[in-house]
Amino acid sequence: QRQFVESGGGLVQPGGSLRLACAASGFTSADWAVTWFRQVPGKEREGVACICSSVPTTFYSDSARGRFTISRDNAENVVFLQMNGLEPEDTAVYYCAAHKYGEPGRGSWFRDYEYDYWGQGTRVTVSS
Fold first, then answer.
1. What does the pLDDT read at residue 67?
2. Element (H or E) spanning 37, and its range?
3. Which of 86, 95, 99 is nearest to 128 (CA)?
């Protein structure tokens, strides 16, 4: 079964950092555009960052840009999300997924319905 396994979440104080990892199981993630999403109970899932091609091309949400960095280690079959300057508003469950249709562009990378191989997520809590 193809899916991602997310890890690295936890409790961190405002201003702190976390590095999330998204390990692919049953397939090679380097062949896919991969996006980190996050979701807060009662709200829609939000695209955070995409590594959208092998170049690589990356896209970020407005809230993530300048604080978060997405990267991949193809040898380890893992996609990372380095999160710095964390704020309470970043508290959420973070998921990664692979785009079903190839390499999404700037106007579409955040559409969660175009993704597959969702993992169980990793919870991030930013609180003092």
1. 98
2. strand 34-39
3. 86
d(CA 86, CA 127): 9
pLDDT one-digit tens code per residue, 92-102: 999 999 999 88
φ/ψ of residue 65, rounded to 5: -60, 130
Q: Is the dihedral of CA 123, 44, 5, 8 positive or negative?
A: negative
CA dist., res. 93 & res. 120, Å (int): 9
- What CA–CA distance (Å, rounded) separates 15 from 85? 4
**CB of 90 within 8 A of CB of 83?**
yes
Assign 55 a pLDDT band (cuts: 50, 70, 90).
confident
- What does the block give as tokens for 21? 């990892």
